[in-house]
Amino acid sequence: MPKLAALFNEEFIGVDSEWRPQLPFLNNSQPCLLQLSGAKSAFLVDLDALCQSKALNEMMTQVFSNPKSTIVGFSFKSDISMFASKLPHLTFIRYAEKFIDAQNYYRKVYDAK
């Protein structure tokens, strides 16, 4: 987990998570991969293996609550909802000091044309 500390000095951190599509017979889906990237480093976090990790949650809370960094996601509200309902032990997602949903800016740029 100490390698994630490389994100502490990043101005912008891109985030995305992946999970199995919600299908009626697979309604047990939860986020299984978290992707984080700064200008100089990128990380893939195996949430299936680490969803109970206190160390991961503590490190990610430091990353997400860092006032020097802005977290950037695209339509990340659905990801936040999934974390809250499916991975309640990982609370870091609630601590984003500064967050930008790039989808809002995408709409502004492309709706204007």
What is the total number of structural domains?
A: 1
Spatial order of the strands forming the largest sheet: 3-2-1-4-5
Instruction: List low-pLDDT spans.
Output: none
Number of helices: 4
What do you see in this structure?
With 113 residues, the protein is α/β, with parallel strands linked by helices. It has one domain (2-111): Ribonuclease H-like superfamily/Ribonuclease H (Nucleotidyltransferase, domain 5, 2-Layer Sandwich), CATH 3.30.420. The protein is 31% helix and 21% strand. The chain has 4 helices and 5 strands, in the order E-E-E-H-H-E-H-E-H. A 5-stranded mixed beta sheet has the order 3-2-1-4-5. The longest helix is centred in the middle third of the chain and has 11 residues, at 54-64. It is globular. It starts with 11 loop residues before the first strand and ends with a helix. The model has no long low-confidence stretch (mean pLDDT 85).
What order do the helices and strands come in, and which of them pair?
Blueprint: E1 12-18, E2 33-37, E3 42-46, H1 47-50, H2 54-64, E4 70-73, H3 77-86, E5 99-101, H4 102-111
Parallel strand pairs: 1-4, 4-5
Antiparallel strand pairs: 1-2, 2-3
